[in-house]
């Protein structure tokens, strides 16, 4: 085989990494290089340094160490049975790319993942070596996210968490059954146990900071996971219930949803279906409702189990719970205000603050930054009464995009 | 009328000092004329007659001062007077900070927001190129960037914190930030030529085009966050039109390509997971855990992390049965290691029982919970789940064959005796298990943790210890 250049390997291994949705680089321990002895800073909110035409931000150098893999997951472009080109980057090459990209302000850090070569332990050990080299030899203080291999030995995971800011273990699919069918070499039990280990290690490594907050020195930016949407038959309700369990059980920072995307060289066992990208978007919105709006996973999706693709889940919920509305903006509780479509968490906070000083009028909501087009039918306050709107049968039609006639051809 | 001329470098610090003096002297906003002129901060004094130093302290919330000073970076020509008007209003309590319905504050917050976005975009889109070294032992980089507002001085410290071990220069149309040997300085821009491309840029362009997924083209999402005005200084941006053009065709080809047959060597390479022990084979206490993990007699197994099998010697004379694993046990895969386990451990010690000599297990082997935000709320297993899990408990009871069983709580009582219901009246009594062994009933240690009243808790705990001591006496351990 002809030896590939770094550029060629980068092309193959970045291409192979594009199906990982995570891009976050925020949170974690505050570090900087003001002392002049190292490179990089992190903590606080991350920065998106570029955007690709798929609308996704580029914040980290997201690559696979290798796309050789001994697993055969039907949804994955790198599965053992795929005929794609394979390549492997050495530890030094990954370190070089990370540092050179970082120095030019292209990235916030590294997101390293890998196919499984030889054994899960061998692969994980190589990945840990990359981060350790970055930290020890290059004095790199930027952000590092390591995709952890659930089958790797606990000692390796423990070492990974010492060097990396975030660890993630992909749950891959919403149900055990789907995982068994589409990723036969993976084990849901092993995945859950690895997540449990990360949580336990994080809790064991908490240190009291001078502000009295307890920050963990182990994977300070927490753990996250990713679920593929649309490769199996799971409904949105099942997906959200799995997510809520993941948040509660393992204190996930984030659950990422990745719409199953056509891949080059597909598998016979999983024909290329193309779920609407809007489904992924609605799931993220629903996830937000669970995390910041005090919605329960069970109440977001309608009885059909699938989220409405035409309108956002909060609006959809409000339309099916008309009896709760209109909400009196000057009197309603925080919980109720959070349920009003068009009111974000920040708007609600501002409403509560402003309310302490005087009664809020319609014009104030506009300045506060509420989306009035959505909120109007669901609120009442001086300067605005929704009249018959909350009971209007055609209310949904005011928000949904107009129906498109099916093409005859 | 006061005419204040601010320097072009150190503008905000100068504004602050002038504003403080003016405010202390009671100058109204409409009496002050602000302008930016001189290049450097040493021509500090203005033409107006010098004002005496302010007497009274100025009381304005820190967050307000920060927002005003951020807004002062805006290119709006009236920014200094807007800022001063807000400061005066806040100081005289005519304005309330955070009141968006006030036009002075509303206007200021709008400016502030635009500036913050501009600073953020500068942090994101500055692209360094390597140039010849300036100081020994430090690599040197340079960048050309065009912000919308006067943000260089406010935005530059971020780069100093991040790129502490290298020298760098960021030139913009008005000011240039320089970081040499660890010192940050500013000067007026003299050279407006962007630095030449360096070798790593090609790698970055490769990365940019490879990480893009043509099957999910969303151009508007890209341009809303990376507006075209920034493109001319981004080395990767000229790739974008070509990527967009080719995307539909690439996606179509992927979709149309038939699934391929796997290469012949695949079978040799494939990973084989060691099979879990089958529960139908020869089951032992030691080999029970994998079989339990795989148990799906009830739906709890899919939601919990793992099963928690019993722990203890096979010839134990005493077997203590609890309800189900909790949050800690579920993570660790071992029984009674959480808060209730600590209560049990202490009570056993007080009763003279050795944990290592007792077989400890639960009526239900998977944790049943309800997710609530970032916590799991314990939920009592229902009769169906207890019945489903009886298979395992019966196996443990039959294998260990203890002289006495202790049922802690009503779920354990239900599983062992077939009788659920309140434990309140039955505590301290001995009933019989389906298998015939005597069962001593007592409270679950988690119940002791829930009692608020200290005296009640102490008494309940004492009874619990007494029950365990009695169990010890019965088995003669």
Question: Mean pLDDT of chain A, as a whole number?
Answer: 90
Order of helices and strands of chain A: HEEEHEHEHEHHEEEHEHHHEHHHHEH
Query: Mind telling me which CATH architecture of the largest domain in chain B this is?
Result: 3-Layer(aba) Sandwich
Helix content of chain B: 40-55%
Integer count of domains of chain A: 2
CATH homologous superfamily designation of the largest domain in chain A = Aldolase class I
Backbone shape of chain B: elongated
Query: What is the CA-atom radius of gyration of chain B, in angstroms?
Result: 37 Å
* Measured distance between first and last alpha carbons of chain A: 48 Å
Discrete helix count of chain B = 17
Q: Looking across the biggest beta sheet of chain B, what order are the strands in?
A: 3-4-5-6-7
What's the count of strands of chain A? 12
Strand content of chain B: 5-15%
Taking all Cα atoms into account, the compactness measure Rg of chain A is 24 Å
For the biggest sheet of chain A, the summary is: 6 strands, parallel
Give the uncertain stretches of chain B in residue-range form: 39-46
CATH level-1 class of the largest domain in chain B: Alpha Beta
Q: Which CATH class of the largest domain in chain A is shown?
A: Alpha Beta
Annotation, overall tally of beta strands of chain B: 14
Strand arrangement, major sheet of chain A:
3-4-5-6-9-10
Describe this structure as you would to a colleague.
Chain A has 409 residues and is an alpha/beta fold. Chain A folds into two domains: 6-275, TIM Barrel, CATH 3.20.20; 313-399, no CATH class. Chain A has helices at residues 6-15, 91-103, 120-136, 154-163, 176-182, 188-204, 236-250, 277-292, 297-300, 313-320, 334-338, 345-355, 362-368, 372-375, 395-399; strands spanning 50-51, 57-58, 60-64, 109-113, 143-147, 166-168, 206-208, 214-216, 223-229, 254-259, 327-328, 379-380. In chain A, the strands form four sheets. A six-stranded parallel β-sheet of chain A has the order 3-4-5-6-9-10. In chain A, strand 1 and strand 2 (57-58) form a beta hairpin. The termini of chain A are far apart. Chain B is an alpha/beta fold and 477 residues long. Chain B has four domains: 2-120, no CATH class; 126-188, no CATH class; 200-250, no CATH class; 288-475, Uracil-DNA Glycosylase, subunit E. Chain B is 41% helix and 14% strand. In chain B, strand 10 and strand 11 form a beta hairpin. In chain B, helix 2 packs antiparallel against helix 3 (79-91) and helix 14 (383-400) packs across helix 15 (410-417). Chains A and B meet through helix 1, strand 1, strand 2, strand 3 and helix 2 of A and helix 4, helix 5, helix 6, helix 7 and helix 8 of B. Chain B: Belongs to the uracil-DNA glycosylase (UDG) superfamily. Type 4 (UDGa) family. Chain B: It comes from Zhengella mangrovi. Chain B: Residues 309-469 form the Uracil-DNA glycosylase-like domain. Chain B: One of its GO terms (molecular function) is 4 iron, 4 sulfur cluster binding.
């Amino acid at each position: 085989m002809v030896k590939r250049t770094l550029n060629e390997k980068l092309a193959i291994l970045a291409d192979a990494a594009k199906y990982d949705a995570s891009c976050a680089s925020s949170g974690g321990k505050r570090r900087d290089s003001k002392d002049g002895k190292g490179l990089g800073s992190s903590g606080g909110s991350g920065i998106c340094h570029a955007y690709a035409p798929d609308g996704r931000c580029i914040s980290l150098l997201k690559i696979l160490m290798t796309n050789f893999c001994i697993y055969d997951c039907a949804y994955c472009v790198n599965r053992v049975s795929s005929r794609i080109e394979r390549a492997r980057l050495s530890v030094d090459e990954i370190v070089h790319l990370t540092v050179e990209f970082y120095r030019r302000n292209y990235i916030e850090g590294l997101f390293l993942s890998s196919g499984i070569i030889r054994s899960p332990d061998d692969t994980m050990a190589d990945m840990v070596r990359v981060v350790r080299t970055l930290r020890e030899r290059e004095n790199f203080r930027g952000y590092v996210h390591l995709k952890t291999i659930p089958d790797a030995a606990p000692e390796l995971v423990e070492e990974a968490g010492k060097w990396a800011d975030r660890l993630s273990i992909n749950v891959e699919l919403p149900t055990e059954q789907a995982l068994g069918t589409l990723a036969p070499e993976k084990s849901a039990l092993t995945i859950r146990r690895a997540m449990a280990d990360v949580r336990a290690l994080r809790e064991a490594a908490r240190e009291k900071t001078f502000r009295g907050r307890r920050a963990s020195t182990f994977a300070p930016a927490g753990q996250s996971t990713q679920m593929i949407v649309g490769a199996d038959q799971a409904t949105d309700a099942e997906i959200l219930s799995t997510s809520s369990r993941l948040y509660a059980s393992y204190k996930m920072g984030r659950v990422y949803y990745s719409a199953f995307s056509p891949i080059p060289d597909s598998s016979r066992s999983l024909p290329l279906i193309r779920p609407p990208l809007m489904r992924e978007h609605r799931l993220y919105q629903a996830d937000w409702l669970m995390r910041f709006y005090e919605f329960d996973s069970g109440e977001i999706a309608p009885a059909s189990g699938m989220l409405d693709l035409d309108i956002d889940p909060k609006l959809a919920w409000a339309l099916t719970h008309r009896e709760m509305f209109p909400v009196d903006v000057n009197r309603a509780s925080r919980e109720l205000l959070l349920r009003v479509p068009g009111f974000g968490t920040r708007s609600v906070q501002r409403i509560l603050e402003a309310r302490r000083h005087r009664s809020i009028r319609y014009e104030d909501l506009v300045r506060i930054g509420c989306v009035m087009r959505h909120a109007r039918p669901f609120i009442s306050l001086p300067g605005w009464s929704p009249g018959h709107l909350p009971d209007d049968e055609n209310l949904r039609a005011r928000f949904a995009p107009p129906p498109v006639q099916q093409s005859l051809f | 009328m006061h005419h204040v001329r601010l320097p072009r470098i150190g503008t905000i610090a100068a504004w602050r000092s002038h504003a403080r003096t003016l405010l202390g002297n009671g100058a109204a906003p409409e009496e002050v004329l602000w302008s930016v002129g001189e290049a450097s901060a040493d021509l500090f004094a203005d033409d107006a007659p010098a004002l005496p130093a302010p007497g009274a302290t100025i009381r304005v919330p820190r967050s307000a001062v920060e927002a005003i000073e951020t807004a002062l970076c805006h290119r709006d020509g009236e920014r200094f007077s807007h800022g001063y008007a807000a400061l005066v209003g806040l100081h005289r309590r005519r304005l309330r900070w955070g009141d968006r319905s006030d036009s002075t504050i509303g206007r200021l917050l709008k400016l502030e927001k635009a500036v913050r976005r501009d600073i953020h975009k500068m942090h994101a889109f500055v692209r360094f190129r390597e140039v010849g070294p300036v100081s020994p032992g430090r690599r040197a980089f340079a960048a050309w960037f065009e912000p919308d507002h006067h943000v260089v001085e406010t935005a530059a410290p971020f780069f100093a914190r991040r790129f502490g071990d290298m020298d760098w220069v960021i030139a913009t149309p008005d000011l240039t930030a320089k970081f040499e040997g660890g010192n940050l300085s500013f000067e007026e821009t003299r050279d407006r030529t962007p630095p030449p491309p360096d070798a790593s840029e090609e790698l970055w362009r490769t990365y940019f085009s490879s990480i893009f997924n043509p099957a999910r083209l969303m151009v508007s999402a890209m341009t809303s966050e990376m507006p075209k005005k920034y493109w001319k200084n981004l080395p990767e941006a000229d790739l974008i039109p070509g990527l967009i053009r080719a995307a539909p065709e690439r996606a179509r080809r992927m979709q149309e390509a038939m699934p391929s047959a796997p290469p012949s060597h695949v079978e040799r390479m494939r990973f084989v997971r060691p099979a879990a022990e089958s529960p139908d084979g020869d089951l032992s206490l030691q080999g029970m855990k994998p079989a339990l993990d795989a148990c799906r007699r009830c739906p709890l197994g899919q939601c919990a992390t793992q099963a928690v099998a019993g722990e203890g010697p096979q010839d134990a004379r005493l077997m203590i049965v609890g309800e189900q694993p909790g949050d800690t046990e579920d993570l660790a895969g071992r029984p009674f290691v959480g808060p209730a386990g600590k209560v049990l451990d202490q009570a056993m010690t007080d009763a003279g029982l050795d944990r290592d000599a007792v077989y400890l297990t639960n009526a239900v082997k998977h944790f049943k919970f309800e997710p609530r935000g970032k916590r799991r709320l314990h939920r009592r297993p229902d009769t169906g789940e207890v019945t489903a899990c009886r298979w395992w408990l019966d196996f443990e009871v039959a294998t260990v064959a203890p002289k006495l069983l202790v049922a802690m709580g009503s779920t354990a009582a239900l599983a062992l005796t077939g009788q659920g219901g309140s434990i309140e009246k039955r505590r301290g009594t001995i009933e019989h298990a389906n298998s015939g062994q005597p069962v001593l009933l007592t409270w679950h240690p988690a119940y002791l943790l829930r009692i608020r009243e200290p005296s009640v808790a102490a008494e309940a705990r004492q009874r619990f210890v007494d029950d365990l001591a009695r169990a010890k006496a019965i088995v003669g351990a």
